[in-house]
Each structure stands twice: as C-alpha cells, then as structure tokens.
Amino acid sequence: MLLSHDLEEPVLYDPARMTGLNCNHLAIVTGFTDCDMISQHFIQLHDERGKADGFSKEIKIDIILGMYKGAGITLRKHRNIMQTLNRINAIDKHMSIKCRYIYKNAEVHTKLYTWLKDEKPIAAYAGSANYSVNAFRIRREILTDCDPAESFAYYNSLLPDTIDCFDENVPSLLKLTNTSIPNDEISELNYENLTYEDLIKRPPIDILEVSWLGKDGSVGATSGPNWGIRPREGYIDKNGMYVKYNRDRNQAYIPYNKWQRKEGFFPDRKNPSDKNCPLFKAVTKDDGIFYMRMAQQGNKGIHTAESNAILGKWLRKKLRLEDGALVTLDDFKRYGRTSVKFLKYADDVFIMDF
C-alpha cells in the first residue's frame, strides 16, 4: 500500500484505534522532528484514548532522532524537547513518550514508523516523511507499508548508538550549540522558533483582556482557577458506593464568559460536529509555550490542551502559591492583576501575558 497524501491518520492514528489494530506502542526512527509534532500527536491520542471508537488505553511512543549535526539538534532544541516530554509525561500514567538521539557512528536519515501491540510488531511504514508538522501536513511526502518484524529489528539495531535525551552527557557528547542554523523542516511559527522576545516586537492583530474572576468579581470556589478543588474527598454514587475524586488540584481554566468575549478572537470549531475547538499556541514570557483551546459547554473556558493542570500550575507559580493551593481574590490583589492579556498574531499564535 502506497500512501502519498493525508499520511497522518493512516500512519500516526489508525493503527492505535481499538476498532482497528488496537496497537499500543509506536517506535519511530526519524531524521528530524519538532515539538509541535510531538505535542499535537500526544494531544489527539490523549483526547480520544480509551473511548469506544478511540485509541488504546495504554500508549507509548519511542523516538530515535537520527540527524544530530548542523540544524539537527541545537542546545535550544534539546531543551525544548526535554521540556515538552517532561510536561507530557506528567499528565497521564497510561501514556508516555521517550526520545533518544543517535550520537555515535553515522547519522541516520531514515523515516520509519513501526506499530506494536503488546510488543509484537503489527504494522510498519517507511518513506520520505520525517516525524514533523511540515512532512505530515504541508509537503508532498510518501510512505509505504513494509515488514513490521524487519522494521522493528532495524529500530532495535540502532539503539546501541543512541543516548536518552535526558542523559546529562548529551550536550558534551553531541557538542550542542545555540547557533541558529536554517532548517527547512521547521517553519517560522513552529513551537521551536517562537520566543516571547521576538514576538513581542511585532504589532499584534488584536488584543483582549480576559478576567480570572466571575462577573461579580469573585473567584470560583470550584471553578475557574480552582476547577480541580472539590469540597470533599469523594461522593456517594447512585449505587451507594463511595467514589473518590480523581482530580489534580492544580486543574484550572480561564473563564471566558459572554460579558468579556470578542467574536472570532480565539479559534472556534469549524463544524458544529467537531469534538474539540482547534489548538492555539500561547507564548509566555517566563514558562515557554502552551497549547490551549476553548473548552467546556458553550466554550466558556480556556485551558491548556494536554492537561488543564498545566495552566493551574503556571498560575500558582506566578502567584507564589503551593501546588494545588486554593486561589483567592486576595492572592490576585497581592499580585496586582486579575486578568490575562492575550495578544493575537497570525496562524493562531498568541502571547499570554499575566
């Protein structure tokens, strides 16, 4: 089977669907990758994991990144990859993503995707498409199915030449530098090329202040910044069984109520039947980039897409509160601000300033 367009669904998602092959492990060999691809792939798998028509309940992704010279892996890219993986792997114990770099012998320019079910190779694809947004969504690339067992054997043959991205010796072994080298795998507005310092110099398309508070000026006790906090540890269900709440106390969303909305400011569903609103990138001054979207019934909240606990941790860090602490109006008054400023740029990129 030769795939020459719309590669994303058949290669990155369909093999993991429970209505399909129900695979739960993807082993990737790629010359280049980018944090946009890693994050967006995880978010979609996470959104539909465990659903009847969704993906396997347990999913892991292992990446071998083969091109380490030149524009392959700079120190900045290495740090971005670690930050992305740390953020993702803290979200869901049923999902994990790991990345290893080729660091000795010849570089690897291979593009190979092997899906396994309980460590048995089930499906594999090889061709020209790197594990990147450009390859899967912008360029004309080609992938064809190949022998799963041989593909996984090839993946394993590379492991002795790799090093885990979190190994403290990576910067010295790969001689990573901060030198900016043009890389046509990475677009200008990709996660890796966006910085607050560069973006703030540009004139925004539009600006909107969104309050953390309700219309009455109060902080929701179990909503908004305190979405993850519940007054009790659990509840009695309809069958009389005690059910413990399973929420991270950091979970939070920014209220986006009708009284403060600006039509079309944030990306909304293209079709009413879409399960989720589109993602947008929120660049912060001090904590990198978040993937966000409008959520909840009537789009009344804005949250971080991987997990709304990411937003809550960021807020509590800014307010100098402990993880999971109740956020109060006094906390906002002490900080000196009660609203988030969003500066809008092209291609669903924003600065989130608080």
TrEMBL record:
Molecular function per GO: endonuclease activity
Gene3D superfamilies tied to this protein: Endonuclease Chain A (3.30.870.10)
Pfam families: RE_NgoFVII, RE_NgoFVII_C
Keyword vocabulary terms for this entry: Endonuclease, Hydrolase, Nuclease
Sequence ranges assigned to domain Restriction endonuclease type II NgoFVII N-terminal in this UniProt record: 23-170
Domain Restriction endonuclease type II NgoFVII C-terminal B3-like DNA-binding: start-end pairs: 209-344
Superkingdom as given in the UniProt entry: Bacteria
Name of the protein this chain belongs to: NgoFVII restriction endonuclease
Species of origin: Selenomonas ruminantium
